[in-house]
Amino acid sequence: MSFGFRHPRRRFSDLSEQEVLALAISNEEEDARIYRYYAESLRADYEASAKVFDGMAEEEDEHRQWLIAEHKRRFGDAIPPIRRNHVSGYFSRNPAWIVENFGLERMRAEAGEMERQAEDFYRKAADRSTDAGTRKLLGDLAAAEAGHGEAAGTLEAEHLGGVARVDEDETARRRLILTWVQPGLAGLMDGSVSTLAPIFATAFATQNTHTTFIVGLAAAIGAGISMGFTEAASDDGELSGRGSPLKRGIASGVMTTVGGLGHALPYLIPDFWTATTVAIIVVFIELWAIVWIQNKFMETPFLRATFQVVLGGALVFAAGVLIGGG
Description:
The chain has 326 residues and is mostly helical. The protein has helices at residues 17-42, 47-75, 96-101, 104-128, 132-146, 148-159, 162-194, 196-206, 209-234, 245-262, 272-297, 302-325; strands at residues 10-11, 87-88.
């Protein structure tokens, strides 16, 4: 007995012209919703950019109306319920809520990629069409998508003048620092420095790499959980403007764990002195990385950052070595 299995998705080349039009209609509907979602998520802090995405959503609505009119002309009112995820190998959109988390510039880049993909789709669809009217419409839409970069530039010029663009870019930079960089840096500092003493005290007291790794792993994960919850619970971000407490908690917790694991992982090396040498090198890199981040993003003077981080880390490291070797 043989069993037949039908692939849940269809190839683009197997779609009828009616299905291609239906797919184009659903594409325009989804893209308009994405642009409106971007606009609403930006409106409170980036009003000018929100207006740009509002304008792009209106253009997608206009394209959808053209496509629906063409479908009615050729096939009637019943539009097949076909979506991107029904077509094998077809491009898909990144979830809007994920793109939103990466900030304004990522939204702008995502919009540019959406327009490029739409242009490719319409060119391929036009090549397959046998109806002169449909072929012309799809070709016009391909040209319109190709020109969206210029249209977006026009909208930005209208709504994002020089001062508005500078203000929004500065707001985006400030939000990035307050929501991600600052909590992440605090976590990295805590994870890198606070775990130095227990890890190296254990290392020199036992000279057992496995025990040292277990202690370091526990210290890193414990510190990450503690820092993450503390950051998330300390400020809801409403008045301070520091953004989502969940995002800040994740940034702080993850970077705290990373900072602690950095000099714990070398103790997976069986030889004690080899593992310790590698761990010391990692500590050196971690501390200077923190200095660089403070100087670049927090505008902390280099010498002051060096004094605070490197000297403080060296003292904690020395305390761990003295306690463990005592």
